[in-house]
Amino acid sequence: MILTVTPNPSLDRTYEVQALKRGEVIRAETERMDPGGKGVNVSRAVAAAGRRTVAVLPLGGAPGALVAELLHAQGIEVAPVPVVGDTRSNIALAEADGVLTKINAPGPELSGSEQELLLDTVRSQSRDADWIACCGSLPRGLAPSWYADVVTRAHAGGARIALDTSGRALLEALRARPDVVKPNAEELAQAVGRPLTTVGDALKAAEEVRSMGARVVLASLGADGQLLVSDTGAWFGSARVSAVRSNVGAGDASLAGFLIAGGTGPDALASAVAHGAAAVQLPGSVMPTPADLDPAAVTVTTDVPVDRELREPAS
């Protein structure tokens, strides 16, 4: 079982439009409504693969009730933490050329008692978990050290933990030595305090993040591929993609694919790349099923192309 923790979930509305023009009335071609948040997306991808997952998340108001309903409909067990504030609603505008514009609401502020209940729920639900995936931003009320506390408690209980967050929350958590961290290029650059312009730059940054405490780094480099860096070596994975439809949740699908395949080594990286590549070819934040995957399109190698310039340099 893969347990996911999403401290700041959302109700996501995605609209596909031909082009985004400021100040004009834009008519959407399609509309989707999905439960959102990085950990929620990991659970959705795990469930789509036919595996058991439990999603721990604070939920409040009508948006929170709808998030729980949508998750149940996808076969996901929900361990809700009731909160007074309403769960946030986010909007994504996906243009025909693949450009995505997102508007993310701040979300509710958790009280002291709600924070304790969230930690207690993670503890009670983690007994049967093979992996705990803690993902996303922290809501108002939670200290930057909150993820570090979760990592420490998870390890004390014998669980493995994967972390996908950024900024100070990531830096604080690294001291607790999470088993896996999954930054993107921007988050890597932020963690090491310098820009990344090549795959080699990203590799050095990933190695530095390992020296800061991460046992394994799974780095998403967007269209350039993914890096896996551990104490046994470094691998680079990429995949052929025919057309990008939406990259919402693609990194979360990658993390799910990595954990589903065991969370270690090149085979897990290949699974991560396959899941991420499939996700970007689906609408909105739809998570790929096994039928959507194309393992033959994936390449994993120890020959990391260190001189390759990133198509989207990170600053």
Provide structural commentary.
The chain starts with a strand and ends with a strand. The strands form 4 sheets. Strands 5-4-1-8-9-10 form a 6-stranded parallel beta sheet, with helices on both faces. Strands 3-2-6-7 form a 4-stranded mixed beta sheet. The relative contact order is 0.15. It has 315 residues and is α/β, with parallel strands linked by helices. It has 9 helices and 16 strands. It has a single domain (2-314), classed as UDP-N-acetylmuramoyl-L-alanine:D-glutamate ligase (3-Layer(aba) Sandwich), CATH 3.40.1190.20. It is globular and about 50 Å long. 33% of the residues lie in helices and 27% in strands. The chain has helices spanning 38-48, 61-73, 112-125, 146-156, 167-174, 185-192, 199-211, 250-260, 265-280; strands spanning 2-5, 10-17, 30-36, 53-59, 77-82, 88-95, 100-103, 131-135, 160-164, 180-181, 196-198, 217-220, 226-230, 233-239, 298-301, 309-314. Helix 1 (38-48) crosses helix 8 (250-260). The model has no long low-confidence stretch (mean pLDDT 94). Keywords: ATP-binding, Kinase, Nucleotide-binding, Transferase. This is 1-phosphofructokinase. Belongs to the carbohydrate kinase PfkB family.
Give the gist of this structure.
By secondary structure, the protein is of the alpha/beta class.
Shape category: globular
The amount of beta strand, in percent, is: 25-35%
Instruction: Give the strand order, joined by hyphens, for the main sheet.
Output: 5-4-1-8-9-10
Q: Give the assembly state of these chains.
A: single chain
Helix content: 25-40%
CATH architecture: 3-Layer(aba) Sandwich
- The chain-level structural class is alpha/beta
| Tally of separate helices | 9
CATH hierarchy class name: Alpha Beta
* Sequence of secondary-structure elements: EEEHEHEEEHEHEHEHEHEEEHHEE
The low-confidence parts are: none
- For the termini, the CA-CA separation is 37 Å
Radius of gyration: 18 Å
How many domain regions? 1
Tell me the major beta sheet. 6 strands, parallel
Domain Carbohydrate kinase PfkB: 9-290
Family: Belongs to the carbohydrate kinase PfkB family.
Protein name: 1-phosphofructokinase
EC number: 2.7.1.56
